[in-house]
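Reviewer has doubts. Consider these tokens.
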Amino acid sequence: MIVISRQVSLADEEVEITAIRAQGAGGQHVNKTSTAIHLRFDIRASSLPEYYKERLLAASHHLITADGVIIIKAQEYRSQEMNREAALARLVSVIQTLTTEQKARRATRPTRASKERRLASKSQKSSVKAMRGKVRHSGD
């Protein structure tokens, strides 16, 4: 059972996990063991609530294909079990981030005191810069 939130969870059968060979450096060990994990999760065929499915399918994310399948490849660790856990954690993270409701921004206005502070600092800077002009002597 994969827990997404308090109310939402996925059955293990809904996630297709395949062990594959990892890419990159690692010596002879890499060439003979399948430690990397390839995870596929079909959004449309899942038991997620309709709201979650709509949000995930509407999102433009590099892990979601045009067919509505989330594909994650985990090969950070040398052990297959740790890569499996990492892939599942990334799946949960993607689902949570794409389905959270963004709080609407409420426009605020600056306070009178902050406006006065801003104007005071502007006039201060202005007077400092005015003093930088050429020095005029009374005898010239």
About this structure: The helical segments are 28-32, 50-58, 80-99, 112-130. The longest helix spans residues 80-99.
